[in-house]
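Before the break, one more example. Copy the sequence into your notebook; we will annotate it together after we see the structure.
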Amino acid sequence: MSQYAPTVPLPHLSDARVAIVMADWNGHITSELTQGAVDTLLKNGFSKEDVVVMHVPGTVELTFGASQLIESSLFDAVIVVGCVIRGDTPHFDYVCQSVTQGVTHLNAECDIPVIFCVLTVNDEQQALDRAGGPAGHKGVEAAQAAIHMIDFKRQVLNM
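Here is what the structure looks like once it is written out:
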């Protein structure tokens, strides 16, 4: 169960679209995170047509995918979904740094929110625990964050 949902009620949105960019690397985990996000959006009033899932090969490519979706002007939020599991080389650090800086840059420079749903874990079990296991469901939490951020932007625009 999500730790985010019980404390913050979700606003009701109308006419909103969300894109999800899913990294296919560690796909057994990212597909579960993506499904949790999709299910949450559908349960909260989004139609199937308002939720688009796109795929990129790996986590580093998430920033480019999100950037292209932002430039399309078709979406109110983009969720990036990835999973990086620590290995024996520094590659983990480079990938994590790249996607974190990329998403941070998009959020600072672009006009729609990019929600970070990238697990950075020490082992596969930690990822599974966060994809619907005892540590919650980070895909569900990402969709909830997208709903809140779309609402936030609309509140700002209506000031």
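Residues 86 and 122 are 5 Å apart (CA to CA). The first strand starts at residue 18 and ends at 23. Try to locate both features in your own notes.
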